[in-house]
Design goal:
With 333 residues, this protein is of the alpha/beta class. The chain has one domain: TIM Barrel (Alpha-Beta Barrel), CATH 3.20.20.210. It is 45% helix and 14% strand. It is built from 15 helices and eleven strands. Strands 1-11-10-9-8-7 form a six-stranded parallel β-sheet, sandwiched between helices. α3 packs parallel to α15 and α8 packs parallel to α10. The longest helix has 22 residues. The chain is globular and about 60 Å long.
């Protein structure tokens, strides 16, 4: 059973031979722990890979995304970074007025996808291949406007904000439609929705404004025979059932910010839990025994002849031996 088949059987709850793996890394890990990172990759190779973003037209960015200083992304959003190896933050809005929003230039270069090169990449690997794009409408609003303005305008149901959101969403649909014509196995979208103990907006507002957008992403992927994955950080227990309802196949969430046992009782077998292991405490400060117990806890809550992908993030502050222990434990159980 190759990696592609392994992941598919996991998503279908069809008794894969083992739990598939995927390690997420930030350049911070390569900078500070290169030897251990290579050992993890060597001992526990990934089963999931992202397709490169092969484009006919170059994208316009300036600066280095993971270096100290300023980075301007393909939308023109300005990120300030003070720590090498991680992603910076937007401090100044690109769109200072709604007139600016009308003049927003969309990154149409992302629509110049070389489908044949993507398909060639898929043919030449037996790994499960994810599309190389990732819609993130809520976060894109924040990158364009700053979080403070987005929350204020959501509270007021500002028509200008909703118009901008619709424009962003339609661009993402166009981009997804292109990727859906390729031979990738799955597509992905994301938005970080959780604070430490609650959703960032009310569940009712989320269901009214954002759930319909996500439903369109899911339907587009499924209509083209693709699986669809989602990532969202923080406490998102209030909307996980909604994501299962609209057909999200796999969710990457900070499980340890929520009641894992309750989530297992509610959603075990409803969708695949694509990691993760707690990076607030366990990966940075935990003991090997605590790491192993955490892995068992995830498996006991969510495994149902599939339905679990071994995943964690090797990011800033994580102990390399703890990241290794995550995958070692998954290998042993």
């Amino acid at each position: 059973m190759d990696s592609r088949e392994l992941v598919k059987r996991t998503l279908e709850f069809d008794r894969p031979k083992r739990v598939p793996r995927q390690l997420w890394t930030l350049p911070w890990a390569e900078i500070h722990h290169p030897e251990m990172l290579r050992k993890i990759w060597n001992d526990f190779p990934d089963d999931i890979v992202g397709a490169p973003r092969f484009l006919h037209q170059p994208i316009y960015t300036t600066g280095e995304q993971y270096e100290i200083g300023t980075f301007v992304d393909e939308w023109g959003c300005i990120f300030e970074n003070r720590q090498r190896g991680v992603i910076g933050e937007v401090k100044v809005p690109l769109l200072k007025t709604w007139e600016d929003a009308k003049r927003l230039r969309l990154p149409d270069e992302l629509l110049s996808l070389d489908v044949e090169l993507v398909n060639q990449f898929c043919r030449e690997t037996d790994l499960f291949v994810m599309a190389g794009n990732c819609p993130r409408p809520f976060e894109r609003l924040q990158f364009l406007l700053t979080s403070e303005k987005v929350y204020l305008d959501l509270g007021e149901q500002s028509p200008e904000l909703l118009e901008l959101l619709n424009r962003i969403h339609n661009f993402y649909l166009d981009e997804m439609e292109l990727w859906a014509t390729t031979d990738v196995d799955a597509m992905m979208f994301m938005d970080d929705w959780g604070a430490q103990k609650a959703l960032l907006i009310s569940p009712s507002m989320w269901r009214k404004i954002f759930k319909p957008l996500y439903k369109e992403y899911v339907e587009l992927a499924h209509n083209h025979g693709k699986y669809i994955f989602m990532h969202s950080d923080g406490y998102i227990a209030d909307i996980l059932a909604d994501l299962a309802e609209i057909g999200v196949d796999a969710i990457n969430a900070q499980l340890f910010a929520m009641d894992i046992g309750a989530l297992g009782k509610q959603l075990r077998g409803a969708m695949t839990f694509w990691g993760e292991i707690d990076r607030q405490y366990l990966l940075s400060f935990g003991t090997p025994s605590e790491i192993a117990k955490a892995v068992y806890r995830v498996k006991e809550a969510f495994y149902a002849d599939g339905g679990v992908i071994a995943q964690c993030e090797f990011g800033a502050g994580a102990k390399p031996e703890n990241v290794y222990q995550v995958f070692k434990t998954w290998q042993e159980i």
